[in-house]
UniProtKB/TrEMBL annotation:
This is DoxX family membrane protein. The lineage of its organism: Bacteria, Bacillati, Actinomycetota, Actinomycetes, Pseudonocardiales. It is a multi-pass membrane protein. The chain crosses the membrane at residues 12-37, 58-86, 98-116. It comes from Saccharothrix syringae. It comes from the Bacteria.
């Protein structure tokens, strides 16, 4: 791969990571306000789920900005978005509301795949999970 292509790919991946990270931090923080109380009441698992989801989204969004954590953070966010898609479709019965979490799920999976080579095995200096 040429240096120009490699640099362009790296820049594109970082743009994706920063944009996705900013969205998830914003979204996660918004879950701590009163705007989603009614929605989580309709879900039926209590308001604790709203706080857990908010923490996971903020942590994942910030994790996307850490090179060694980006792939794992994206994978975790994909799991959260899988839950959101299932919730919108099955529990709330609102296919239109499932579109945004489905898009975020796809972007999170793509980010996880693009960043996976940066993930390292804890305790094993220099050894990567992707290799």
């Amino acid at each position: 791969m040429s240096v120009q292509v490699s640099t362009a790919r790296t820049a594109a991946v970082w743009v994706l990571r920063v944009a996705l990270g900013a969205y998830f931090v914003y979204s996660g923080l918004s879950l701590f306000g009163d705007g989603f109380v009614g929605k989580f009441d309709r879900i039926g698992f209590g308001q604790g789920l709203r706080y857990v989801t908010g923490v996971l989204e903020v942590a994942g969004g910030l994790g996307l900005l850490v090179p060694l954590l980006g792939g794992l953070a994206a994978l975790g966010l994909a799991a959260v978005m899988t839950g959101a898609v299932i919730t919108e479709l099955i529990i709330l019965g609102d296919p239109e509301a499932a579109v945004l979490p489905a898009l975020l799920l796809a972007l999170s999976v793509a980010t996880a795949l693009l960043c996976w080579d940066d993930v390292r095995v804890p305790g094993r200096r220099g050894q990567r999970l992707g290799k």
